[in-house]
Amino acid sequence: MITSAEQIQLLYEISLSIGTDKTIESSAKKALSTYIRKLNCVAGAILKNNINSLSKVVSIPKKIERNIDYTNYVDQLRNQTSDTKLNHSTPWEIISIGNDQYLHHIPLPQFGVMVLIKKNEPLANEILDSLSQNNQKLADSLINFSFKEKIELQSHALESSSDAIVILDADGVVYSANSSWYQLYKIDTSKLNSYRIHFFDILSKISNNYEKLIEKITSGKSWSETIEIDYVNEEKQFFEIVISAVKNSQGNITNYILNYHNITNQIQYQDSLKVSEERWQFALEGSKSGVWDLNIRTKKAYYSDHWLETLSLNRQTIENNIDDWLNLSHPDDVESLTDRLSQAIRGNKKVLDVEHRLLKNDSYIWVKAQGKVIFDNKKNPLRIVGTLTNITERINHENEIQEIKKRFEDLADLLPQPIWEINLQGIFTYANKASYERLGISHADLMYGVNIDEFVQLNELEIIDEGIKSDQHMMNGACFCTPKSGITFPAMIYSSPLIKQGEIIGYRGIIVDITKLKSAENELILFNDLQKELIQISSGYIHAQNDEIESS
Hints:
Layout: H1 4-16, H2 24-38, E1 43-50, E2 53-60, H3 68-78, E3 93-98, E4 101-108, E5 112-119, H4 125-130, H5 132-160, E6 164-169, E7 174-177, H6 179-184, H7 199-206, H8 210-218, E8 223-229, E9 237-247, E10 253-262, H9 264-287, E11 289-295, E12 301-303, H10 305-310, H11 322-328, H12 334-345, E13 351-360, E14 363-375, E15 381-390, H13 392-414, E16 419-423, E17 428-431, H14 433-439, H15 443-448, E18 456-458, H16 461-469, E19 477-481, E20 489-500, E21 503-513, H17 515-551
Antiparallel strand pairs: 1-2, 1-5, 3-4, 4-5, 6-7, 6-10, 8-9, 9-10, 11-12, 11-15, 13-14, 14-15, 16-17, 16-21, 18-19, 19-20, 20-21
Helix pairs in contact: 1-2, 2-5
């Protein structure tokens, strides 16, 4: 039990320790240390009541959380921050936490709570009651520190902002501004005390509707506009300026807050993007391609005017989704197109390249759809953007070529002579029906590659090989052909070069069986030899008769 004089001295020393330092942490620590020392406590902490949470400002010892009983109690408080224990009208409370220790819950009105731990016996009730004024003083001191730190933090954030920010009074005079704003208007801050800056005068020079603007601002309505500021020897700068009114509890305007956001880069980017888009559109119009843009997440699609024109459609006839595309597709192409699109949508493919048919009026046209998958920063597919090109003319031309090729092959199959095509290495690339029959060439040979020299033996074989390698324009000559049957026959080869884009890529030729011709030649040779022998015999007989006549 302490005397009244001792109690007064105790309260006086505690009061002197409150609010004497420069920061909230050091001030709270000094006051808490005095509370603990003067009240013979062993530990303590000051906790700040934030929104839906409690945070420790300071504690003695520093790692008070090692005290399990303290930690459990604070956890209970955190789970009930709206409880009356944190209300400023709640009185102190003593809680026995075992081991002859007592925890004292002491409210700090409008700030938080102070927790003191004492051994052996709790603090007397009259002592706790007498601390109420000091507790309120400590709370007020900590609230002021918090407010000061908040203002300093806001000021630092304001000054660090790249945006120009200015606060006006109710008359439009600059009350406060960050350095970015002064730099924006080239204002010498060292001379600010010598004159007042009327922003409404500045506003009259940058707005074409000054009177209407002032009327709108002074009525409390917000205003925003994009302005240009020209600097000497510098590029023009673009700013988005926003002005908002601040009102008091009676609804009267007390201040205006202005924010200048530099959008020069954005304007330049938009201008360059516009130029790029114009160039792109010009290139697309020149290439007669339509543009499509599929949003993978929403399944919505955008189709350009030229895309619609390609199919003789208008915007009233489509629903701007992927179904528009699929519904126009030829039934035989829907499955393939859906599969390609699904692979792109799942991110399995980065590009889309598919040729298919789409309905135009009452008939189908051939189109080529090419697109690229756009991914987000997590590599998830977002969109597929691409072009659609009418390739009907090309497909028709290719079909005509195929028809001509088939016509040639059908005619070649009617001929009894082997007709073939080879590349520059002598590998067969085509063979007609007679080649299969006479030479024994199979489809497997054409698939895996077989060389002409496996069937042809020429007395000018080296010359013909040189002709292939040196790109001679003709490869003709007599030869002997040995088909897979092994029965060799004499033949003549007649050929001409295959030319593509001005370059010889191989040869096309025909093999003529000259077996009968060779037989006729042999018979003629025999006849000539016999004729010569007969002539010689006749000559000898006539010569002998002449000799007999002369002798008689």
